[in-house]
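Form 7-S
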Amino acid sequence: MTSRRQLILRLSLPLPLLLASTLSLAACSSTPSKATVAAREFAKSACASLQQLTDQLARPRPSNLTDPYYQAAEQYLNTATNRAADAAQQDHGYQEFADTLHRAAETWQVTFTLDEAEPLIQQARKEKC
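Output:
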């Protein structure tokens, strides 16, 4: 409903209903739900982990897959994936973000390389961070 239509509708209401509708509209439009706030916080945490992961991936990669470099990178990805899943539980608007990171984590586990997981990681960062 456009602002103009809302104004016309309000002007046609008796004063007590007008005040009640104005207050309820203001409450709905200005205060996010607790779930939305929680989802945003989880998403911020996921994005912070993705930034750490991106910083890690920018460093030279050792040839030994048991190197602490890969352990740290995997930990950042797992943390980001878990926080994105938490965000999606609170707000379904984060579901694609969570799914993309989950695919990246699965790809890493299956292929043991970052080459296929990295584009998914970058896609997730572009989606929500």
